[in-house]
Amino acid sequence: MTFEPANENGAASGAAPVRFALEGATTIFVNRHSGLMLSCIEPFANAESLDETSNAKRLFDRTRCDKRGHAFLRDYRPADLLDRQAVLVVAKDGGRTAGTAFGCPLGERDFKIGGLVVDPAYAGQKLATGLIAALVLHGQTVHGQFREIIAGIRRLPDDRLNEASRRSFDRLGFLLEVDIQKVELCGTYEDRHLMSSAEFADGRAPYVRRQWMVAEGSIAEAHSRAFLRQWTQAVLPLPLT
């Protein structure tokens, strides 16, 4: 699996595709106007990636809740990324971390995306979709062609879906499955912060509802390439702060 990385102006270089090795692999896409950068890294590969992993987790901890204080996302520990053979993508505005997401292989041919957050100051810049797209391309470079790529979307007790997240995946060819899963909470570090927005039913543990966004690997790859070609050249709105 190969693809053309961005050059210093953020556009595809036009040179022969570059093949990346797993250890220390890095892929970068840059918006030519704003300088916003999407950087895909292997967590803990070196001192720089360790810093980026820590910065990404700090942003995740600050932004994992919506405006009402409801947490949509399960938590993770940085060490989980290593255990799950994850690849990490961060959006950078100079030294500021503006967004992050990670992806982990499932079985031999599938891939799961999680931990997607964007600093609210960067709303409207399509960073969430850019993070997903960069993750799809880099993940397949590291782990090989995926059969299927999935991501969970939270549905709250008032039946609201995380609509912003749904749209971000929809742009890349992901489809929302009709089935709604009920996932019981175990009170671990991964889900205990979800208790305040959990649902309850007689005779069972508190639970949250989730729907899957799903895309074939080849479809997500094609959409991701097209999106990043446009994003690297687009004039983006300025950050809010």
UniProtKB/TrEMBL annotation:
InterPro entries (alphabetical): Acyl_CoA_acyltransferase (IPR016181), GNAT_dom (IPR000182)
Pfam families: Acetyltransf_1
Protein origin, superkingdom: Bacteria
All residue ranges annotated as the N-acetyltransferase domain in the record: 45-196
Name of the protein in its database record: GNAT family N-acetyltransferase
Organism encoding this protein: Jiella mangrovi
Origin organism lineage: Bacteria, Pseudomonadati, Pseudomonadota, Alphaproteobacteria, Hyphomicrobiales
